[in-house]
Structure formats: C-alpha cells, structure tokens
Amino acid sequence: MEYRAERLWQLADRLGFTFSKGDEYGLQRWLEDFRLTSRGRDRTIANVLREQQGLHEYDAYLFDFSYREFGAKQSVHQTVFFLHSQRLVLPELCLQPESLLHKMGQLFGWDDIDFVRFPKFSRQYRLTGEDEGYIRHHFTEDVLNYFTLHKGWSVEGIGYYLLVYKKGVLLPPEEVEQLYRRGLEVYALFSNQPC
User: Fold this and answer.
1) Whole-prediction pTM value?
2) Which of 3, 51, 64, 156 is the most buried (most CB within 10 A)?
3) pLDDT tens digit sequence for 106-121
4) What does the pLDDT read at residue 111?
5) 164 closest CA partner among 89, 88, 94, 66
6) Among residues 27, 28, 9, which one has the least CA distance to residue 17?
C-alpha cells in the first residue's frame, strides 16, 4: 500500500489538494449515518485527498474506505468521493445499482422509488429514502438522464453531505481524478451549480 499512498500523494500535489495517510479530518464521525460506513467491521479510512473551495462553497474529499464483512476473511476496499456544502440540501437518500436481490426483495415489499417516465433508470437503480416526495423533487430529468447514461454508481445524501462511489471498487491511482470529476458533476446536478 506504500506505493498507492505515494501515487495518491503525487496526485494531490498535482491537483493542489492536501494529502493525509489516515483520517486526520475525522471523516469516520461525519460519515457514521451513511449506509456505506455502517457495513461490516474493522472500518478504516486511508489516503485522504482534500480540496477546500472557498469558505462557503464546498469541502471535497477522496479516500480509500475498507471494511470486513461479518464472517469474511478478506476486507472490501473502495474509493469514495465525499463532499460537504451548504449549497446542498439533500433528503436522506441512497441510490445503488439494482441487483437481482433487490428485484426479489421488491416481491417482499422492499422499497424502491421508480420513475414511470424513466423506465431504464428504474431498471438500473434502486433508490430509497424516507421522504419520497422530497427525493423525487431532487431527481430532476437532468439527474435521471445522467445516471441512466452513467451506470453502476452509488450515491448517498443527507443534508449538506454527498457520497459517490462504486461499491467494492478500489480505483487505481490514475483513475481517482476521474472520480473527483464525477463527484463534482453529481454535486452540480444536485445543487444546480455549474461544473
């Protein structure tokens, strides 16, 4: 992992971000209400890149998140984009690629917010959250089209906080900047800000 840390430090330096090998910013505490960080045990955050844009614009982080499923010997590793901004006022929501298990779960009453005018999106993704009306308000035509075209992403939102990642995918260092760009696109969609 030393090689990975070195490459990500170089990326942070090139982008003008700060870098830390561990969770010096207390991200674990900020993320404790998200589904991502409630999985498994032995949760760790490492290789944190941080960009701060203005006092009130946003704070963005890219990091490696690991956890171990209960009963599993191997850890799950993934790269995560996290953003905090007062321009976001998101309902509690979780968007994830729809799996066969989710489709079967619907037979037993599992929730899934579908959009009749966007059947492709509804087939590709499972969208859940407490306030369906407020979630529908945030999933504009632009948001629905974006995720229909860009498959496989997981997004979680709560208030001023946004997570974007691909479940179980630890991106190679050369692809981490693409995740940063993708995260800013999603932020722009939900905050009605230009990229």
Assistant:
1) 0.90
2) 156
3) 544 457 788 889 999 9
4) 72
5) 94
6) 9
Is 82 in contact with 52 (CB distance < 8 Å)? no
pLDDT in tens, 138-161: 999 999 999 999 999 999 999 999
What is the Cα–Cα distance from 89 to 191, expressed in whole angstroms?
A: 8
Residue with tokens 């971000």: 17
For residue 103, the tally of other CB atoms under 10 A from its CB is 13
Q: How far apart are CA 142 and CA 161, in angstroms?
A: 20
Contact 125, 96 (CB under 8 A): yes
Give the per-residue SS3 of 26-44.
CHHHHCCCCCHHHCCEEEE
Strand partners, 75: 68
What are the sequence ranges of the domains in the chain?
2-191
Q: Please identify every stretch of the chain with a pLDDT value under 70, giving residue numbers as ranges.
A: 1, 55-56, 99-110, 193-195
Distance CA 133, CA 136 (A): 5
The 3-state secondary structure of 97-135, one letter per residue: ECCHHHHHHHHCCCCCCCCCCCHHHHHHEEEECCCHHHH
Token pair for 71:
């009963």
> What is the predicted pLDDT for the residue at 75?
85
Q: Please report the pLDDT score of residue 106 as a whole number.
A: 52
